[in-house]
Structures are given as structure tokens and as C-alpha cells.
Design brief:
Chain A is mainly alpha-helical. In chain B, the strands form two sheets. Chain B has a six-stranded mixed sheet, with helices on both faces. In chain B, strands 2-1-4-5 form a four-stranded antiparallel sheet, with helices on one face. The chains are: A mainly alpha, B alpha/beta.
């Protein structure tokens, strides 16, 4: 058999197998059940508009709070880790290693239950607020390492140029180093943001008031009360509606920033 | 080209002390002795070219003058101010010392204009309008008036280096340090940068130039300093040092580069 004939034959077989599997799944699947329990239009209509106006909105708000908080705390930690003062470096290193090594869920438990029980303390914003503090603390540990790497990736000549012009350390950091560092770390920071969007679902475990529920908690509650999986599918689609434009936006930003590099 | 108006204070200082005076300067990197007791000075209005093989310590010497490198021992006086003294306001002294780097070190995230105004506003506390005016004047001086809105990455190496010179000049420094300013440039771009430096020298700028451009040293330098192995081997008028070197090491070096 000629080599080209043999290749064509192999490809034909592969196509046939694929088609057979697709046909089998289409025939074997219980479409009525799938439609009724995953794509039930009535159930879907039932969760609107609250799934958007409350749940999706809360997911976005929680993500924004956790990301901004994580950025600020992460920046502080990164600067501490690069500080010439030894105790600052120790603290930052200890903090980062600790919270990168713990499951976020455990930290959320700690802030939502353990600390309130021990100290009779109530976080601002209730359990959702307590969970958010935990998310900020965990995400700042990751973000700190990202920012530190970005700062270290800015060429040494940039500091020297700024300092030789008589600019002091803080101004050099603020106007020369950090803007370049953040351009460098835009891709990994986006990654952190997308991870954070999904991690807000962990707040579920904190136990939230009705109006505080985000997408996952909301859709799980609806799943239970309606005995139907459609709310989960709607929530999944809404997560994608939030995350996909974000990754696109950042890709665009990156192209824009190339101009200045 | 607009002539530089030298501040009267610089003239007053010139009688008091040399622009740069280095005494018994030693610099070690770990166990590596890079500078082994350098005595060196630059007078006001003087153009001093420092030449020597790579690894001779000439860039380190230059970088010690504005304390980008910390001297191990010895003193560095700039206009009579000891910059190794911890009481000295280093940032204030640095605004009077312009520095130009081999790799230009422009700020890539800022436009050319912003490159020139940033330190004027942050270190010299100039108002925005004045900073912009000074920036435009210095861009015109280096022949790049039309590039104010460009970003560094859009410029050729030679243009970038001229912007870097304009950036240093925008601080109205009393002196300029050049650290191999043409070494990273394509040969055809060297001329424009040297021309700007010659113009500066003609205007009476105090300059310390670490360079491999022997033609520039001969033509523009008031004095040439030859360094090798962390010491000043010989110095004098360019025609003497370059034309009639006294030391074997100088002869050997010049035979390789000329």
C-alpha cells in the first residue's frame, strides 16, 4: 500500500470513530431529562432578574473589593520584602509563605467563625465581610510575589537614571519603577483577578445573608429549592460573561502598552 | 542652537573648589579591588576624557562621583561638598550633576517630553509650565524639537542618547558625566551624539567623559586621563597622552585602539 493511501485510510478511520461516538451519545442521552433539569426555561426565568441584580452584582463587587484590597496589601508586602530593614523582610516572607501555603477555605472559616467566636467580633458587612477579609489576606500573598517579581524585572539602569537626576527613593519607585513593573505583570495580575472571581464562590462557606449571596451561593440555594440544576447552568454562563471580556480587555491593554516599551 | 546661560553661582563656586575632586579613592567589589587609590580632579569648565581598557575602573570612578557606587574609602568632593558624608543631601547634589549612560536609560513608559520634565518637577520642584519650557529648549538644543511626543522605543539609539543628554541638561547641571555615551550606538549614529557633546564643550560645560572615542578626546578634551588596573597611569594634554605616551601600558593600549 502506498504511504499516502495508508495515511488517508488512517484518517478516515479516525473520523469514523469520532462520528460513531457522537451519534452514540446523541442517541443514548436522555434529552428530555437533560432539558428538564439543566436547561429548563421556566426555572431559568424564575431566577431572573435576582441572579443578575443580586448574585452577579455581588460577585463583581466582592471581586473588586478583594482585588483592590489584595493589590494594596500586596504592594505593601512586596515593598516590605524588598526593604533594607531586615524585620520587614522577615515579616513579609513569613506572611507570604504562610498564606500561600494554606487553603483559602480554611482562612475563610477562621475569619467567618473562629475569630468571631473567640473574640465576640463581628466583621463589617457580616459573614460576607469576614470572608472578604480572608480573601484579601490570601490573595495579597500571591499578588505580593507577583509585584515583587515585576519590580525586580525593571532594569537597574532605570533606578540609576532617576536617582542620578536627583529624584528620591519614593518618587523613583512611584513614577519610574512601579509603572513599568505593573506593565510587566499585567498578564499574571489578570490571572490573579480571574482566579479571584472564581474564588469569591468560596464565600459560600461563610454563610451569607439573603441579599449578600453571590452567584454560586445563590444558584446552589435555587438548585435546592427548585430541585433543578438549571440555576447552576445560568450561573456558569454568567461567570463566563464576566471572565471572558476581562481576559479580552487585558489582551487589548497589553497590545496598547507595547507602544511604550 | 541656544547658548547656555551659566548661573552666576557656578562661577562664584569655581574659584573656591574644583568641580570634582577625588582623593585616595578605593572601591572594592567583594575581594575585587577595582579602584586602588585614585587622585583625580576636574576644574570648572574643563573637559576631561578618561580612557583605558575595559575593567580598568574608569566607569566605576565616574559612578563614584555621584555615588551611584559607594566608595569603599577615600573622599569625593563635588564643588567643595563631600558627597561621601552621610550629612550631605545627596539628591540635591545630584541635581547639579548631569549623567549620561551607555544604555541611555530613558524611561520607556513616558513620552520624550515627560522624560525631560519628570525630575524637574519632582526633584527641582519646578512648575509644570516652566519644566515644559525648559524641556522644549533642551530638545531643540539636541536637534530633536519635533520628537517631544514620541516614546523612546520609537527613536533610534542616537536619538535616544540625545534625548538622554537633553534630560540631564534640563536640570541645569553645573557639570556632566558621560559613561561611554556612544559605545552602544551603531557607528553611523555616533556622529550626531558627539556633535551635541562638542557643542556642550564649546559652551563651557564642565564634562567628565569616559570614552573609547579617541578622536573626540583629542579634539575636545582639555585633559586626557589614562587608567589601567584601577590606577591613573598618566594624564595630560590630549596631544601629549595620545601622541607621545610616556608609559608602556599607555603605549600598549593606544597601539590597540588607534
Amino acid at each position: 500500500m502506498k504511504r499516502s493511501t495508508r495515511r488517508r485510510l488512517t484518517q478516515g478511520v479516525l473520523y469514523a470513530v469520532f462520528a460513531a461516538v457522537v451519534v452514540f451519545v446523541l442517541l443514548a442521552a436522555d434529552w428530555a431529562t437533560i432539558r428538564a433539569y439543566f436547561f429548563n426555561l421556566d426555572v431559568a426565568m424564575g431566577v431572573f432578574p435576582e441572579i443578575v441584580t443580586i448574585a452577579a452584582k455581588n460577585t463583581v463587587v466582592y471581586t473588586a473589593i478583594a482585588f483592590v484590597g489584595g493589590l494594596l496589601l500586596g504592594l505593601l508586602l512586596a515593598l516590605m520584602k524588598l526593604s533594607p530593614v531586615l524585620p520587614y523582610r522577615w515579616f513579609a516572607t513569613g506572611y507570604i509563605e504562610l498564606f500561600r501555603g494554606l487553603p483559602a477555605l480554611l482562612v475563610i472559616f477562621g475569619f467567618a467563625y473562629a475569630i468571631p467566636i473567640a473574640f465576640q467580633w463581628r466583621a463589617p458587612g457580616g459573614n460576607a465581610g469576614a470572608g472578604l477579609i480572608a480573601l484579601i489576606i490570601v490573595s495579597s500573598a500571591y499578588i505580593a510575589e507577583t509585584i515583587r517579581a515585576g519590580i525586580e524585572a525593571v532594569p537597574k539602569g532605570q533606578v540609576e537614571a532617576a536617582r542620578s537626576l536627583g529624584m528620591n527613593g519614593p518618587w523613583t519607585m512611584l513614577t519610574v519603577i512601579l509603572p513599568q513593573a505593573f506593565r510587566i505583570i499585567t498578564p499574571p495580575l489578570t490571572n490573579e483577578l480571574v482566579i479571584l472571581i472564581k474564588d469569591t464562590s468560596l464565600l459560600f462557606i461563610a454563610g451569607m445573608a439573603i441579599g449578600d449571596r453571590e452567584l454560586t451561593t445563590f444558584s446552589r440555594d435555587a438548585l435546592t429549592s427548585q430541585a433543578n440544576a438549571t440555576p447552576l447552568v445560568v450561573a456558569a454562563l454568567l461567570y463566563l460573561v464576566i471572565t471572558l471580556p476581562l481576559t479580552q480587555l487585558v489582551a487589548k491593554l497589553e497590545r496598547h502598552n507595547k507602544r511604550g516599551r | 542652537m541656544i547658548p547656555v546661560a551659566h548661573p552666576a553661582s557656578a562661577a562664584a563656586r569655581s574659584t573656591a573648589a574644583p568641580a570634582i575632586e577625588v582623593r585616595a579613592l578605593c572601591k572594592n567589589f567583594g575581594t575585587n579591588e577595582v579602584l586602588k587609590g585614585i587622585d583625580f580632579h576636574v576644574d570648572h569648565g574643563e573637559v576631561v576624557c578618561v580612557i583605558g581598557p575595559s575593567g580598568s575602573g574608569k566607569s566605576t570612578l565616574l559612578r563614584c562621583v555621584n555615588r551611584l557606587e559607594e566608595p569603599t574609602t577615600g573622599t569625593v568632593m563635588v564643588e567643595g561638598v563631600d558627597i561621601t558624608d552621610s550629612e550631605t543631601d545627596l539628591d540635591a547634589v545630584r541635581t547639579r550633576i548631569g549623567m549620561v549612560f551607555q544604555q541611555f536609560n530613558l524611561f520607556p513608559h513616558l513620552s520624550v517630553l515627560k522624560n525631560l520634565t519628570l525630575a524637574q518637577q519632582r526633584a527641582k520642584k519646578r512648575g509644570k509650565a516652566e519644566a515644559i519650557e525648559v524641556a522644549h529648549r533642551n530638545l531643540a538644543k539636541v536637534g530633536l524639537a519635533e520628537k517631544a511626543d514620541a516614546f523612546p522605543a520609537q527613536l533610534s539609539g542616537g536619538q535616544q542618547q540625545r534625548v538622554a543628554i537633553a534630560r540631564a541638561l534640563s536640570m541645569d547641571p553645573d557639570m556632566m558625566l558621560f559613561d561611554e555615551p556612544t559605545s552602544a550606538l551603531d557607528p553611523e549614529l555616533v556622529g550626531d551624539v558627539l556633535e551635541v557633546m562638542k557643542q556642550l564643550a564649546r559652551e563651557g560645560m564642565t564634562m567628565m567623559v569616559v570614552t573609547h572615542e579617541m578622536g573626540f578626546a583629542r579634539e575636545v578634551g582639555d585633559r586626557v586621563v589614562f587608567m589601567d588596573g584601577g590606577v591613573v597611569v598618566e594624564q595630560g594634554k590630549p596631544e601629549d597622552v595620545l601622541g607621545n605616551p610616556q608609559h608602556e601600558r599607555t603605549k600598549l593600549f593606544l597601539s590597540k585602539v588607534l
